[in-house]
Amino acid sequence: MTLFQLEPITIPAGDTVAMEYEFVLKDGSVPDYSTYTAYYVLSQYGFEDSNILSESMILKQDTTNVFSVTLDSETTANLEPGTYTAKIVLSDGTNYFKKARGVFNVVKDTDGVGVG
């Protein structure tokens, strides 16, 4: 089994970020994950045994291997600035397949767009 490396992401706190991931096997074939549930999970970097955020991912229409997730402003505003481990986890209802990991950074930012 190969653990795939996700591209690093850096966002300001309170940003909305939409992400889409396509799964392709090592031999180039397209897997059928249409019956799986996918999750986008964040853990404090170095403390991967404790999740602080878990969002369900959506299978892209007319595909069997492309999942997307959007973290909205309210969700990311509640994340402490720092470095997180991002994980994509697939489930067939019985087993969890932890297929990809990467670094997710949150930097401080203002809470709005007004001057004050």
Strand residue content: over 45%
Number of domains: 1
Mean pLDDT, all residues:
92
What is the CA–CA distance across the termini? 52 Å
Which fold name is given in CATH as the topology? Answer: Immunoglobulin-like
Write the element-wise H/E pattern from the N-terminal end onward.
EEEEEEEHEE
Tell me the structural class: mainly beta
* Largest sheet data: 6 strands, mixed
CATH hierarchy class name? Mainly Beta
Helix run count:
1
Tertiary shape: globular
Q: Percent helix among the residues?
A: under 10%
Classify the oligomer: single chain
Name of the CATH architecture: Sandwich
Task: Offer a concise description of the structure.
This protein has 116 residues and is mainly beta.
Helices and strands, with pairings:
Elements: E1 4-5, E2 9-12, E3 17-22, E4 37-44, E5 51-56, E6 58-59, E7 66-71, H1 73-77, E8 82-91, E9 96-107
Parallel strand pairs: 1-9, 2-9
Antiparallel strand pairs: 3-7, 4-5, 4-8, 6-7, 8-9
Structural account:
The structure is a single chain. The chain is mainly beta and 116 residues long. The protein is 4% helix and 48% strand. It has one helix at residues 73-77, and strands spanning 4-5, 9-12, 17-22, 37-44, 51-56, 58-59, 66-71, 82-91, 96-107. Strands 1, 2, 4, 5, 8 and 9 form a six-stranded mixed beta sheet that branches. A three-stranded antiparallel beta sheet has the order 3-7-6.
List the main descriptive attributes of the protein structure presented here.
116 residues; mainly beta; Immunoglobulin-like; six-stranded mixed beta sheet; 1 helix; globular
